[in-house]
Amino acid sequence: MRKSILVIVSFLTFAAFASAQRPGTIPNDPPGTFSILGFDPETGEVGAAVQSRAFAVGNGVIWAEAGVGAVATQAVVDVSYGPQSLELLRQGMAPKDIIKKVWDADTDPGYRGQKWEKTGRQFAVMNTKGEVAAYTGPTAPAESGDAQGKYCSAQGNTLGRPDRVWPPADGIKPSKVPAAMVEGFEKSEYQTNADGTRGRRNHLSLRLVAALEAGQAAGGDHRGQQSAALLIVKKDAGVWLHNDVVLRLQVDDNPEPIKELRRLVEMSPPARSGRGRGGNR
To answer: Which percentage of the chain shows pLDDT scores above 70?
Structure first.
């Protein structure tokens, strides 16, 4: 494996999700999550953040490689979509073409003798130009969808409504969560001063957390909250020698994982300074 591959990775198995849920989770509930990919053209940093009602959701959903891009793979997940997509990004393939190539090549093998259909997969790909593409399969756990904005892509499944009622009385319909996440990311580029004027520019980590917060406020995962993770990379921009990790954080089991993720992000040097180590601003 290339030394510059920086991933949060271990296989997200159906059995592991089912056994590790908090009390009250429906047994064998498909893994669900909402995630955001983001790029900062001023610093060159690329990253991702994710939240789910599943234990240690960061162990396979979000992937990033400095100078290459970021990937999220979730829902009826095939974790290999992460390294496959990064390899194609290294080759210079456009995100929209990667989405098609990876999905078309999926042989739909099932998982441990059960159906694990590729039409339920959901994944997104971003390069270091900020170009993005995403796929949400027609059988991804409802509600599901994705939305793209300026230098970001948000995607989610098993999504809820702001009233937290499930199943919704008005029936299944397109979720507002992905669009809310895009808005949260775009509107958090700058801080607002006490007098209402524009303040300093926020680090990418704070913008990714703001996107998760907006997604949670719009309905989040209809099963609730449990874990969250964040990963940001840039070549040689981490602390210590030859470290491409600007920031890597996981909250694996917490009743308010996004709140805890924000606390950790706000403690970090990149967020406090407003720029990543080695930033070019």
So the answer is: 86
